[in-house]
Amino acid sequence: MRNLRFRHAAHTPALSVAALLTALSLTACQGGGQESADSAGKAAATAEASEAPTAATDGKTDDGASDRPATDGSASGNSKGSGSAPKPVAEPASQQRGDHDDDTAEEDGPVTRACDGSNSRVKLTTAPRPVNHMLLTVTNTSSQACSAYYYPFVRFGEAQSTPPVFEESKPQAVVTVLPGESAYAGVLTSSADGSGTNGYSTKKATVHFQGRDGVGSTGPSANAPLSKAVYVDSTLRVTYWQTDIDTALMY
Predict the structure, then answer these.
(1) Considering the domain boundaries, does residue 82 fall inside one?
(2) Tens place of pLDDT per residue across the chain (251 aa)
(3) Maximum Cα interatomic distance, the chain, rounded to a whole number of Å
(4) Are 137 and 122 in contact (CB under 8 A)?
(5) Which residues lie below 8 Å from residue 32, measured CB to CB, with a gap of 6+?
(6) What three-state secondary structure class fits 49?
(7) Does residue 232 fall inside a structural domain?
(8) Does residue 164 lie in a domain region?
C-alpha cells in the first residue's frame, strides 16, 4: 500500500475530498506510525488547497456571476443604481398647510383703527380758491396711527342727508394718518353760477367717519365749528380723503 501514488490527485477534480481522505487514512493506519499520520494530514491539506480555485476562481461562480458584495448600489436602497430610491422626508405640518395665521396685513396695507371723533380733531376753513370751496382737515390726536377711510359724511345744519362724493377723487390707497399728522378733503358748498337749489345758510357742521367696511359711519362724530355762516345748496359735494391740500381742492 505504500507504493500508492498521489501525483495526480490534486489535478483530478472528479475525486472528492472525502475519498482522498479515506485513502490517506488507510495508508496511515497500515504504516502504524505517527510519522505516517502526519504525512497524510499534510497531503490532505495540500489537496484541499489545490482544489479550492476550481470551485471559485477569482471570486466567480460556475455561471460567471460574481460572489463579491455589490458595490454599484444595485443591491442597496441607500446608494446609486437600480435599487429602490430613499423615501422622502415629510415636511413640517405648518409648511404643508402653508399657514400664515399671524399675517394681519391685507393687499391695501396693515389694518389700523379708523379715524373718528375719539382720536381725531376736525376743522373746516374757507379756501381762497376755487370759489365756494372749503377745506376739511382731520388731525390725529392719539398716540397711534389711524386710517381715514373713503370720504367724510358732512352734515351742514339740520340736514338729514350727507353730500355725495366726487368719484374721480378716489385715491389709489387708504390714507393712513400718523399721530400729529393730518388728512384733507375738499368741500364744494354751492354752485358758482347759482344753478343750485334748496340753498340755506348755517354755522353748524358735523363730520362722521367711515369704517374699513365702507358701510355707514363708525365711531363718534366730530363737530366742526364755523366762524361765520356758510351757504350750501343742492350742488354740495365732498372729495375722498387725501394726503395733501392741493389734491383735496382740485375738484
Answers:
(1) no
(2) 444 444 444 444 444 444 545 544 444 444 444 444 454 445 444 444 444 444 334 444 444 444 444 444 443 444 344 444 444 433 333 333 333 333 333 344 556 899 999 999 999 999 989 999 999 999 999 999 999 999 999 999 999 889 999 999 999 999 999 999 999 999 999 999 989 999 999 999 999 999 999 999 999 999 998 989 999 999 999 999 999 999 999 99
(3) 151
(4) yes
(5) none
(6) helix
(7) yes
(8) yes
> Which range marks the domain in which residue 20 is found?
9-59
As beta bridge partners, residue 183 has 138
The values of phi and psi at residue 208, to 5°, are -110, 150
Show Cβ contacts of residue 36 under 8 Å, excluding neighbours closer than 6 positions. 27, 28
CA–CA distances in Å: residue 174 to residues 57, 149, 237: 86, 6, 20
Cα 122 to Cα 135: distance, rounded to the nearest angstrom: 10
Question: Terminal CA-to-CA distance of the chain, rounded, Å?
Answer: 135
Give the end of a domain, one of 59, 82, 101. Answer: 59
Cα–Cα dist 125/77, whole Å: 82
Strands 133-140 and 182-188: antiparallel
The reply to whether 37 and 148 lie within a common domain is: no
Between CA 133 and CA 251 the distance in angstroms is 9
For residue 186, the surrounding DSSP H or E stretch is strand 182-188
CA atoms of 82 and 104, how far apart (whole Å): 50
Number of domains in the chain: 2
3-class DSSP state for residue 202? strand
Q: Is residue 105 part of a domain?
A: no
Strands 217-223 and 205-210: antiparallel
Q: What is the pTM of this model?
A: 0.57
| Whether residue 50 is found in the same domain as residue 117 | no
